[in-house]
Amino acid sequence: MTFDWNAHRFSGGVLALDLANTVVFRDAPDRALDRFSDHSQLQGFARAAAQFRQGEWGDARFRPPEHPAQINRLIDVREAINTLFRTAVRGGGLQPANMAAFLQLGSALVCDEPGRQDLALPGSGMGARDLSLGTAAFLSAMRLLEPARLGRVKICPNCHWLYLDESRNRSRRWCDMTVCGNRAKAQRHYRRNRESSDSGHG
Length: 202
Ligand SMILES: [Zn+2]
What we know:
Layout: H1 15-20, E1 23-24, E2 33-34, H2 41-52, H3 54-57, E3 60-63, H4 68-92, H5 96-111, E4 129-132, H6 133-144, H7 147-150, E5 153-155, E6 162-164, H8 177-198
Parallel strand pairs: 3-4
Antiparallel strand pairs: 1-2, 5-6
Helix pairs in contact: 4-5, 4-6, 5-6
């Protein structure tokens, strides 16, 4: 089966979290899987992100990193975004060291943009944008720092992805009900059946 950057892989709701979610099962190191360990996936992700993040960015092109130093910087900002928000969701707040790492990497990314680039945050209704993927993810994450939005960032209990719960009463339990919600339901069903059949032994 060939890997596809489909809608499910953009369940984060905003580019910053989708980027963090290019690692699956983060909270289970033996199962964790980094989609960018294959660098050829960077281009596909950037292209799909422009498609699936139109609601956040309007018409945009995200330039994938090419040189090894650019790739490392993107991975570093991805990890900084993940640590900053995952710690906050777990009740640890926006910690100074996490915030500093995030801002320093963001500063380096922003410095690499062309001098006349407008770095307005997404959602500002600007025309077509052309940004490096790392800068765009940084700006997307900046918007999440706002308390009303930060309070809606959650961790999916099944795949450990970060996602923005934009439901009216903040009731979303899964990154994607049709994938993780159903998988969890199937697991509960399996466990229940196994327990009831086990109970006959002994
Ligand atoms: Zn999930």
